[in-house]
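User
Class, as today's exercise, I want you to study this protein, comparing sequence with structure tokens, and judge whether sequence predicts the tokens.
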Amino acid sequence: MKTYLASAAVIALYAGQSYAGGFERSGNPIGFLFEKGDYVELSFGYVSPSVSGTVGGGAVGSGSVLDSYTQFGIAIKSDLTDKITVGLQIDPSFGADVTYPTGTGYPLAGTNAELNGDTVAVFGRYKFNENFSAHAGIKSVGVGGNVAIVGLGPIPATTYAFDRDVGYLVGIAYEKPEIALRVGLTYSSDTTHDMATNLGSTVSVELPKSLTLDFQSGVAANTLVFGSIRWADWTATELVFPVPLVGYDNDTITYNIGVGRKFNDQWSGAVSLGYERLEGGTSLNLAPTDGYVSLGLGATYTQGNMKITGGIRYVDIGDATTSVVGGSFTDNDAIGVGIKVGFTF
């Protein structure tokens, strides 16, 4: 029961995860470390947001400003002994893709920005006994991108060279296999990136530290409750060059909770709800969103040593007011879909 439901739960939680604070696109889920035996999984996601509004106190429409995107990930783990597990994860952790369409009459029409980041992490896990374990890892985080700002003076297009920094993750977990109970707590350190620009300068940005509590438990025959609470220190993240591009007034706490159900030996499904509080205040024009509520659905098909999991997530994106030329973005949403294929050896 635990294996099937956990797979559907992960997809229900993470399909369309791009609105979980700042410009995070994935919370680096480490559930793969708890799979039985040697295991590899490949994941794919597609997110289509619809974010538009007005500027100049409602005088001009902005057009749709956030672009759709795809992302890929891979995770591998192996049990070296009955107590020691090692794992490798490549995860599309961060990203932003914003374009203000031309022809709208908007002072920033034609402005565009793209930031991309990934995490490559190596993990180790040690089981003290059937119930308690600890995990730790080293992560290499990279980020870079480009921006072209129109309408705010002679600001040339800027490219930020991809830069990597090394951080770490550490956590503990408690399990009670007979009721599919697992509670895990993981801390992930911040990283600092000095990105060289095509203008001959260097710009620094700090990507946030985070603390994530994951949990699941069987509550009835073939039924699982699961969820997570994640805090991220986004107030430490600021990118200013040549003008303020990224900055946050509040840290974020993201909540997810759901229920999974095993239907038979091949099929299981899950439904989840997500929430991030609307903070209010003003946002920068390259991040015109604030909080969200989401609904996710996932299903897993298992055949032999293979699991295929698919999911869809609807995100009701919170309204935002931007700090430049009176932007107001309301009634926006996104659809995220994902698929994951896992093999046990």
